[in-house]
Structure formats: structure tokens, C-alpha cells
Amino acid sequence: MTLHTRIRTILGVFAIALAVAFVTPAAAQSVNPTASAVNEEKLLKELNQISGRCTLPNQIACNIEIPANRDWREFHQVTLRWIAAISVLGMLAVIVIFYLTRGMVKLESGRSGRTVTRFNAFERFVHWMTATCFIILALSGLNITFGKALLLPIMSPEAFTAISQWGKYFHNYLSFPFTIGVVLIFLMWIGGNIPNRTDIEWLKRGGGIIGKDHPPAYRFNGGQKLIYWIVVIGGAAVAITGYILMFPFYGTTVSGVQLAQIIHGIVAALFIAAMLGHIYIGSIGMEGAFEAMGSGEVDVNWAKEHHKLWLEEEMGKGSSARAKAQPAE
Amino acid sequence: MKSFLLACAASIAIALGSWAVLNTVQLPAESYTGTGVRL
Hints:
The complex is a heterodimer of chains A (329) and B (39). Chain A has 329 residues and is mainly alpha-helical. Chain A has helices at residues 3-29, 40-47, 67-101, 121-150, 157-173, 175-189, 197-204, 222-246, 254-281, 290-294, 300-306, 308-316, and strands spanning 50-51, 63-65, 114-117, 297-299, 324-325. Chain A has a 3-stranded antiparallel sheet. In chain A, strands 1-2 form a two-stranded antiparallel sheet. Mean pLDDT of chain A is 85; it is low at 20-28. Helices cover 74% and strands 0% of the residues of chain B. Chain B has 2 helices and no strands. Chain B has helices at 2-25, 27-31. The mean pLDDT of chain B is 76.
């Protein structure tokens, strides 16, 4: 072997040794799940879960650790409670402050003694079917989120269990008439709820709620249109996600069901807050408003103040839509 | 008032009807396993 060849051999061995020295630590950083001394945390970061093999029919039971589940638990035990508490109690606080400062929106021109049909019997039936279901769904849903923290400390575990179990039955099965109600509301009132320029003007003038103005409106004003779309979009969102929760794993995975629960909880909380505002303005917030969904008949002066353009349309129609004289009480 | 009472009656009827249907087909028992295997 010549000197030149020896030098080349030594250099070659040195180069291989260098390569091994630098490459080996990098390779050691990748996780080998079969290694006996594998770091559990590293494995979780690599795979996002640790699953075993089992003979159970339900293969989901073979998942040993899924860190994403901790995030979900944090959401429904902490974050959702904050979102729901802030939105519901916040809305209640706004309503109380508003009522104390503004008071009831009075019928400024007084009652005329003549009425006009605002909602027919079928419309009122659909409204009340959806509304009664919504109230029970809201209360039983709030019990799922807050019951353990608020009700359990003040009652026996047996009583809380019975309330929660029956609440869940009501929550599940009243979802069907509620969904039918939302679909009927969508179809029944879509014609009058397409936003237009009148709504922008109505909103600019505070809708007659802020201040003493009476901006003209058709059958549904800007505020009512907002409520309509909250009911339609919010109702659809809670219904779809609710059915995913009722029938889990039909086309969804565990993470899909968790996502459905997150959407369901957030939308439901905001929905309840919005409906509190709707209930307020439809009852003690405005004189004469409840009659629209109570008897279906509203005073002509009420219609003139709050839905002037709609009243003009109604008066322009046939005799059946004309204002009826109300017998003196 | 009549519309309200009718609405309540309809809600109860639909809820009981859906309970009867789901109870008959036993969907929940299958759905919770996620495998189609009845518990």
C-alpha cells in the first residue's frame, strides 16, 4: 500500500466517523414508540394520542390517552361556563338597566279602539310551539352546564339526578318539535325578513327603542329581522349539532362529536341571551306588543307607530284585512 | 290562549311520537358503541 493510498484510507475512515458522530444524535431525537424507555410526553407530541390493541368491539375504548380530550374537558367545564354566564347574565343586566332608564315603550297616541290582524292562528301556533320548546330546552341545557355547580350544592344528589335525567329526556325529545318549529318559521316568514334599505334607516333612528322616534317599518322591522335570522341560523346550528350529539359516531369521530358539543354550547348560550332580549321587548318592554302573539290582533295606533308601512299595505288590501272595530270595555 | 295550548299539545305529541319511534328502532344502543354492535 502506497503512502498516498494510506492517507486516502485514513481520511475516508475519519470522514465516516465524523458522519456517524453528527448523524446519530439527530436520528436519536425521532421517537421510537417500541423503545422500552420511550418518553411518554414525546410520544404524545408525535402521535397526538396513545392507543393500544384490544379485543373490545368498540375500538374507541382502546385509546389510552388523547391530550385533545383535556382541552375539550377544559372547554365544557370552564370556558363554556364563562361564555354562558357572561352572555346570559350580561343580557339580563342590560335589560334591567334599560328598563330602569328607558322604561316601557308607551303607545304615544293611545288606543284607537280598532284592531288589525297581525299574526293569524297558524303563525301564533308555530311561534308558541317553538317558544315553549325553546324555554324547556334552554333550562335543561343550562342545567347540563351549570347544574352540578349551582343546583347540586342546594339539593340532595338523588333529587339532582332525577331533575337532570328528566331534563335530558325533555332536552332530547323536545328537540324534534323545536326543529319543526324552526323550519316552519323559516318558511312562513322568509318573505318579510329579507333585509332592505328601510331596515338601515330603522336602525339609524334607533328603532324607536332608543329615543322617542318612530321610524317606519314593513311587517317586520330591523330588530325583528335580526331575531328572525338568529332563530333560523342559531336554531339550525343547535339542531344539527344536537342531533350529532344524540346520535354520535354516525359519520363523525370523537373529535367531531367534541366539536359539535363546543358549537352547540356556544350557539345555545348566545341564543338564550338573544331570546331574553326578544322576550323583554315582546312583553314588558313595549306596550301592546304581546297582543300580536297573544290574540293576534294589535291596535291600529300601535301598528301606525311601529309598522306604518305594513299598516298602509294592509289597509290597501281587501276588506278582510281592514281594521276591525273593537267593542268598548 | 287557544294557539298556545294547541302548541303545547303538539309539542308533547311530537316528543312522545319521536320517543316511541327511537325506542322501537333502538338507535341509541347501537350508536354509542360506534361499531354497529348492539350492547
